[in-house]
């Protein structure tokens, strides 16, 4: 029993430490999805499910949901705004909703954000991925 706990703890710890932001985006973009009744339905892989509830770090572009200099809730896109899911040809797997601990200053340059990943399996009004208690890393 203790050995199983230690193995799970070690695996969880190594997931958080050893995954680069680029690798994390590759994992997240591995999601398969179907378009059904005007909604994208995600089919998360086991690799993606392993990160649900874990702290992850992503580098991307802020896509504000309202006009302001700081944002508590916004989208982070792997691609620059002109190429993101909402404006260009990228798919829904390339964006993540960010819910920040404290407001984050807008930037047109890539930013690095860390937070707890939540997989969105049911709420069709939101994107596949949500980053909770997020903060900007300098």
Describe this structure as you would to a colleague.
The protein has 138 residues and is of the alpha+beta class. The chain has a single domain, classed as OB fold (Dihydrolipoamide Acetyltransferase, E2P), CATH 2.40.50.870. Helices cover 21% and strands 41% of the residues. It contains 3 helices and 7 strands, in the order ααββαβββββ. It has helices spanning 2-18, 21-28, 46-49, and strands spanning 32-36, 39-43, 55-64, 70-77, 95-105, 111-119, 129-137. The chain has a 5-stranded mixed β-barrel with strand order 3-4-5-7-6. Strand 3 (55-64) and strand 4 form a beta hairpin. It is globular, with a radius of gyration of 15 Å. The N and C termini lie far apart (40 Å).
CATH architecture: Beta Barrel
Spatial order of strands in the largest sheet: 3-4-5-7-6
CATH superfamily: Protein of unknown function (DUF3299)
Q: How many strands, what sense, and barrel or not for the largest sheet? A: 5 strands, mixed, barrel
Supply the number of helical segments. Answer: 3
First-to-last CA distance: 40 Å
Secondary structure: helix percent: 10-25%
Strand content: 35-45%
CATH domain class name: Mainly Beta
Shape: globular
């Amino acid at each position: 029993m203790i050995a199983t706990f230690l193995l799970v703890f070690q695996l969880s710890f190594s997931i958080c430490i050893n995954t680069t932001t680029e690798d994390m985006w590759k994992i997240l973009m591995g999601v398969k999805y179907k378009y059904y009744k005007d909604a994208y339905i995600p089919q998360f892989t086991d690799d993606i499910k392993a990160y649900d509830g874990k702290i992850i770090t992503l580098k991307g572009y802020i896509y504000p949901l309202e006009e302001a200099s700081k944002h508590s809730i916004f989208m982070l896109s792997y691609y620059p705004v002109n190429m993101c899911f909402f404006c260009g040809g990228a798919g829904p797997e390339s964006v993540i909703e960010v819910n920040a601990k404290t407001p984050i200053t807008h930037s047109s340059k890539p930013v690095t954000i860390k937070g707890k990943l939540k997989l969105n399996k049911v709420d069709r009004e939101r994107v596949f991925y949500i980053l909770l208690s997020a903060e900007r890393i300098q």
